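Example with several molecule types.
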Amino acid sequence: MRVVRLFVVGLGAVGQGLMRLLKKKREQYARELGLRVELVGVADSRGVWTGEDLDPEEVLRVKSEHGTVAEVGEEVEAVQAMEDVEFDVLVELTPTDIETGEPGLSHIMKAIELGRHVVTANKGPLAVAYGEIMRAAEENGVMIRYEATAGGAMPVFNLVRETLKSVDVLSIEGVLNGTVNYVLTRMESEGISLDDAIADAQSRGIAEADPSMDIEGWDTACKIVILANSILDVPCTIDDVDVTGIEDITPEAIRIANERGYRIKLVGRADRDGNLVVRPCLVPKSDPIARVRGVMNVVRLETDVAGTIYVSGRGAGPLETASAVMSDIISIAERASREG
Amino acid sequence: MRVVRLFVVGLGAVGQGLMRLLKKKREQYARELGLRVELVGVADSRGVWTGEDLDPEEVLRVKSEHGTVAEVGEEVEAVQAMEDVEFDVLVELTPTDIETGEPGLSHIMKAIELGRHVVTANKGPLAVAYGEIMRAAEENGVMIRYEATAGGAMPVFNLVRETLKSVDVLSIEGVLNGTVNYVLTRMESEGISLDDAIADAQSRGIAEADPSMDIEGWDTACKIVILANSILDVPCTIDDVDVTGIEDITPEAIRIANERGYRIKLVGRADRDGNLVVRPCLVPKSDPIARVRGVMNVVRLETDVAGTIYVSGRGAGPLETASAVMSDIISIAERASREG
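Resulting structure tokens for the full complex:
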């Protein structure tokens, strides 16, 4: 039986979702894929807990009871603990910082330096340093996977990498932020103001306490940067994106657009010429981009020889996002064992 | 540089599309993927032409001028020629026969027996003998890929295999036949009869001279069988599907449905309990399945931990379908070289 040993850094919603997923499906992976997934380290912002084969249910219990795994582990930095633990894959799930990419960037670079593979759901490091990370990974012969960064459970990077090998993608366009899309959907269907729609989203756990990253378009911009680097081979960072959010969208604007056959959507777009834009757009209702409702995301890929391809899926949700992380982990484990 | 040597059987629309694709992108694959794609044999129903590195443009010219490659090759059966040629991948693109799966089934079994990998766009063999083919492939250590069988350029098998590894798909539902969908779309938008819509589709090259496989639902049924076997682990054949086509759909039925907020779509559906159904359905207009227009296909995958995922793309078109075939060829070549 193959074994993959995980060091999971970050125990917020997605990290805890991953623990729940492991609890639910670890035995099935062993049985059906011949892959034993072992947890050899978990870390949050206060400390690290390491062990030979940690129980994900126990991790959830400790985190919920004490607020940190440092309580049963040690108050050390993850980058330091990583040096002392034998693991195969760093799973980087800390909060996104689009200014510095930290602390995720340091965690990822440390893992690469140690020759360990990386799976991340954290947009920050890739939005500020995609090229740097990929060069370091190549030099050290490690794999980096980041399916969850562009849209939770909507598969797009691996779709292109694994199933559109014969094809060149010419441009990428889509609705990439479930929170914003939920807010716009509510404003349209209820005729309510932006603030009321945000408050509603917050009450349902769809928007964060500070929703500015979403509303101002920066979350979508991060995703566009990663898609452009990864799929279009356009080297870029978050600074290269022309970003406008939905702060100034009114219910009146939505109503007038609606009457004329359009929906207002926050659309992110990238093409091979390096045009990178996020802005509210009037999208004809007949366009599949306009038809995505609520927390669903959608991406349209224009290709040279395969026509237009759409993918759509839930853009958020802890378990859904964790499933994308887990698919990346399995993919790395399978490839490593074939090559090793 | 890796080399993959192809034996292409079937030079209809998709076979010729593959020749055009090779002509267009062969040098790019060599340059960017380090993969040299060589054509060492082509066959149509009248004969076979083999050679060390056939020129796809020359194959197209011969086929167009003489109607068959037998003119420059030999009048032998493909199964016989396969024994005498060194090739890595059989590319099976002969016409679909859903009664016997022939001649594709014999071609595929012969290739497997010879220890060669198989890529096919031919639904017939898989719809009548999926289990048999996969068992033989496993015993002989060869790979079978068939992305183009379920919907031209809409990626679904490889999407699930490669990017949803952590997930169980619980059910599959979709609009899987572009011809039928085009016909229904025209009937709705123009208020015309089924026969007139079919004639229109025929004049545009979207429907075949005998469109009964599409209209009666059998093409969709084939796709459901392959999806159910491949993605849901439900062993089945075309005989297990409950099939109703769109023969009896009238413009009036479409109009009345439309007024009540529905569209009539030919929907194929499969679940883990082995329920396999193809039938015209009233689908609420708000459902993404209802929103796919013209020749586009769409599939909805319900999963256990990743929520609902949609994929949509062109269900037909020679170049688009050939691109799916080519992605499978590249995928096999890459995997074979990693393992070899």
